[in-house]
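Recall that a protein's primary structure is simply its ordered list of amino acids. Everything else, from secondary elements to tertiary packing, is in principle encoded there. The following example makes that idea concrete.
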Amino acid sequence: GTVSSPTIGGSTSGSGIYDINTNAPLTATPSIGYRFVNWTENGVVVSTSSSFNYIAIKDATLQANFVQRFTITASSTAGGSASGSGVYDNGATASLSASALAGYAFQNLTEAGTVVSANPGYSFAVDKDRTLVANFILKFNITAIANTGGTAIGSGSYNSGTVVAL
């Protein structure tokens, strides 16, 4: 016989009664949002192919193992880019990275408007679909120049919205 683990992860075909030393063609079909991993018999991997011929030498129960998959979306506001989007297995580590364009600075990484990281690199264990946004702000170069007989301080590169003391 054949079974699926988890049950909602997919379906199997090929269960039946076979003559000894004949091929039992088995097929595992994942449900939407799942990926086939392997076939096991008593916890031992017997195939990593979703379709294979099992040689019937005794009564056996083969288990088709599936893993749930989630979509991670990394987007960005104007001023930079974000990478790391993809479909990941449940429990896998997703690593996102944000990169600012010239004239911009990385501000933060948000999910549904809530800040989840102040660093442009962010890794996490995948356990659900997530959409993260890398946010960037403009940078301005301020040059303070003194007239003859004085000094000026405060020159530098500043993020948009920063109060600058000159």
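The mean pLDDT is 91. The first strand starts at residue 2 and ends at 5.
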